[in-house]
Design goal:
The chain is an alpha/beta fold. The protein has 3 domains: 9-41 and 416-442, no CATH class; 52-405, no CATH class; 445-709, Rossmann fold (3-Layer(aba) Sandwich), CATH 3.40.50. The protein has helices at 9-18, 20-40, 72-80, 83-96, 108-114, 136-194, 201-241, 245-251, 255-277, 284-312, 322-357, 361-396, 418-443, 450-456, 480-483, 485-488, 493-505, 530-542, 560-563, 572-576, 582-585, 606-611, 613-623, 639-645, 662-675, 697-701, 705-709; strands at 45-53, 116-120, 126-133, 401-405, 461-466, 517-523, 548-552, 587-588, 594-597, 628-632, 650-656, 681-687. Helix 4 (83-96) crosses helix 5 (108-114) and helix 9 (255-277) runs parallel beside helix 11.
Length: 710
């Protein structure tokens, strides 16, 4: 069966508590760095203006295929970010605001391009222009200058087309006027000469038809000529951007586009014939054919846009002139439609001329002069109307770009964002701290809690002694109150931990009848607190009215006499060498039911003394006199312990959290097992408050750190 792995959140919290100084240091360091960064970083102010891109409001002949180009916004953005446009903004600023700080930098044009951005507002025709500067007034001035330059650029672009068509009309109007005068004079002279003032109804009917036809025909000629002028103007603009590009664009086509174009030409031809027949605009045939033409124009629009993008790509400079390219293709199709219309009308014109020739000669001549006059009058009227339209457009001085919202001087900087920076710094500090804690935990192989013990051995942890929040003396030594906390603070949480350990000892080993419990307490390395645990465990046992004895068998570095603050010149060493009897070396204590056998004088050969059978006999004798015997042994690394454990069945191994490495504890366990005396249990000492397992004692018993210090 596969073992299920899961994330132990409580252990994670334990690690955080134990290494919280790393977390605090990380957060503090990053916050300090962020504060310095925020203080030293120059303030950046943002000014925003908005411009509206509108479709063209005038026509250069026939109705355009579509009134709004979907690429207009994208092309306008490309134009606003082009180098040539930025140079125009730079020139404008030099002229209007020469004292701006940005103009005094080594590369002002580069600074302009770097510090401003252009973005569309949703799916609307509005473009947002944003500029950043270290000076609030400069940010607003430059943003507004960019917007105004965009308006001027658009105006120049639109006026250029209008001007060229207007110039063409200016050339044609005098000619039409001269033609009208000549036709008028010829008509009057013929009336006087022939004496014919009116025309018969039949001739008048044919003449009216011819006049109506001429009106359609003349309009077609004017629109065709205007469209040619417009196409030439667009190609000229395109040539100014990139040489020879217009000729390439003209040749761009596709099979499907050609088919749509041919269908459009056919529909326009049919529409022209219906108009010549005199069908009204609301006639079902006219309405239907116009709807088909509109649908076909929409398809052509989509195909031209897609074909242009796929064929020409979107790389500079074509990306800036995409709108212009599509307009050229659109105008070419319009021109083709007008050409077809003109050809149809020219063919029909021959039929009308034949009808005119079949009329009486004098009336026919009068009809011809009248028709010539009407035609000249219509052409002159049409040209003057168009001319006035373009004069009005030119005078308006309005392009397809206008400012709808000017930038105001910002009151607050947008960078550095203090709240966001501090929030990110705090979160980053926590993340970095957790990473640091993880690395330290990976590097630190010391035993820190019960979970670490469970990783290396199956021997149970029978006691967890929490870290002592102590008050040390001036020389750094613990006071006797802190050493013997079970005696002086029996209600403290640490005393409760010793009581729990004492209770667990009753389940370890069963002594022979008439003998007391005997425990040897050792550790893997020195300074793990085994002597303090031995003393407090013995006191806890004595408090239950059990006769208890502590034997200090650490003849190398004895500590029991120091903990109880007594002399040790007469003790275990003197007994083992036969100098003193057992009664002479066992001492009474101020604590009821507790006796102490100190180490005595430190001998030169402690291992040899403990190896004697006399020590074993001593233990056997004392087991009959005391209910509990606790032997404070040297660490396992010394040979003394090996002799001691051969005489004692119950061995307890003390490990101080954060001191002994796991490999050393494992080595100590293996050593004891090889001797034949594996530990009955492990006591984990000096566990930080809130650690695994022991943090439950505090709330349950209602003890606090304050109680420990009383």
């Amino acid at each position: 069966m596969q073992e299920t792995t899961y994330f132990d959140f409580s252990r994670f919290l334990t690690v955080l508590r134990r290494r919280q100084w790393i977390l605090y240091s990380s957060v503090a360091a990053i916050l300090i760095f962020t504060i310095i960064f925020v203080m030293l970083t120059p303030k950046v102010y943002q000014a925003t203006t908005k411009i509206l891109i509108t479709p063209r409001k005038y026509s250069l002949g026939v109705e355009r295929m579509w009134t709004e180009d979907e690429k207009t916004i994208a092309n306008e953005i490309e134009m606003l970010t082009s180098s040539s446009f930025i140079h125009r903004v730079f020139e404008r600023l030099k002229k209007e605001n020469p004292d701006l700080p940005i103009l005094k930098k080594p590369s002002p044009v580069y600074e302009l391009m770097k510090n401003y951005s252009v973005m569309p507002v949703g799916k609307s025709n509005v473009i947002r222009i944003t500029f950043h500067s270290n000076y609030p007034q400069e940010a607003a001035i430059v943003a507004n200058a960019i917007a105004n330059t965009a308006v001027e650029f658009s105006l120049e672009f639109e006026k250029n087309e209008i001007t060229q068509v207007k110039r063409f009309l200016e050339e044609q109007i005098p000619k039409a006027e001269e033609r009208l005068k000549k036709a008028e004079i010829a008509l009057e002279e013929y009336k006087k000469k022939s004496g014919i003032i009116s025309i018969s109804e039949h001739v008048k009917s044919i003449t009216n038809e011819m006049t109506n036809f001429n009106d359609i025909y003349n309009r077609a000629l004017v629109e065709y000529s205007s469209k040619q002028v417009e196409l030439n103007a667009l190609k000229t603009k395109l040539d100014n951007i990139k040489e020879n590009l217009s000729s390439q664009i003209v040749e761009v086509t596709g099979r499907y586009i050609n088919d749509l174009r041919d269908k459009l030409v056919s529909l326009e031809r049919d529409l022209t014939l219906y108009e010549i027949e005199g069908l009204p605009q609301n006639h079902p045939k006219i309405v239907e054919i116009k709807k088909d033409i509109e649908d076909l124009k929409k398809k052509l629009k989509d195909e031209i846009s897609n074909f242009t993008a796929d064929t020409l790509g979107l790389s500079d400079p074509i990306s800036i002139t995409g709108n212009l390219i599509d307009r050229i293709m659109e105008t070419e199709i319009d021109l083709l439609v007008l050409k077809t219309r003109k050809e149809v009308l020219e063919n029909m014109r021959e039929k009308y001329l034949k009808k005119i020739k079949a009329l009486p000669e004098k009336e026919t001549r009068l009809a011809e002069l009248q028709r010539e006059y009407d035609m000249a009058s219509d052409i002159y009227k049409l040209l003057t109307e168009k001319y006035e339209e373009f004069k009005i457009e030119e005078a308006r001085k309005v392009g397809n770009v206008r400012v709808i919202e000017y930038a105001e001087t910002p009151s607050f900087p947008v960078k550095p964002k203090k709240k966001l920076s501090f929030a990110l710094a705090f979160i980053g500090g926590i993340i970095l701290g957790i990473i640091g804690i993880t690395l330290v935990e990976l590097i630190d192989t010391t035993v820190k809690d019960e979970a670490d013990i469970e990783e290396i051995t199956d021997i149970p942890v029978i006691g967890i002694i929490p870290h002592l929040e102590n008050h040390k003396k001036g020389n750094g030594v613990l006071s006797i109150t802190e050493k013997l906390i079970v005696h002086y603070k029996p209600q403290s949480s640490i005393s409760e931990a010793y009581k729990t350990l004492r209770a667990n000892l009753d389940f370890i080993g069963t002594p022979d009848k008439g003998e007391g419990h005997t425990y040897l307490i050792t550790s893997a390395i020195p300074q793990e607190g085994k002597s303090t645990i031995s003393a407090n465990l013995a006191i806890s046992t004595a408090q239950t009215d059990n006769k208890t004895l502590i034997i200090d068998a650490d003849l190398r570095y004895p500590m029991i006499h120091r903990i109880f603050e007594m002399e040790h010149t007469e003790g275990l060493s003197e007994y083992l060498i036969g100098k003193l009897s057992i009664e002479k070396v066992i001492r009474d204590c101020d604590i009821k039911n507790l006796w102490i056998l100190p180490s005595g004088t430190v001998p030169p050969n402690p291992a040899e003394l403990l190896a004697k059978d006399k020590f074993k006999k001593l233990i056997n004798t004392l087991m009959k006199r005391f209910d509990y015997i606790f032997i404070d042994s040297p660490p396992v690394i010394f040979s003394d312990t090996r002799y001691l454990v051969s005489h004692i069945k119950n061995v307890l191994l003390v490990t101080r959290a954060g001191l002994a490495k796991k490999e050393i504890v494992i080595k100590a366990l293996n050593t004891l097992e090889n001797i034949g005396s594996p530990p009955e249990g492990i006591v984990l000492n000096d566990v930080e408050y809130g650690g695994t397992h022991y943090h439950y004692y505090y709330p349950y018993y209602g003890y606090s750190k304050r109680e420990e210090k009383q």
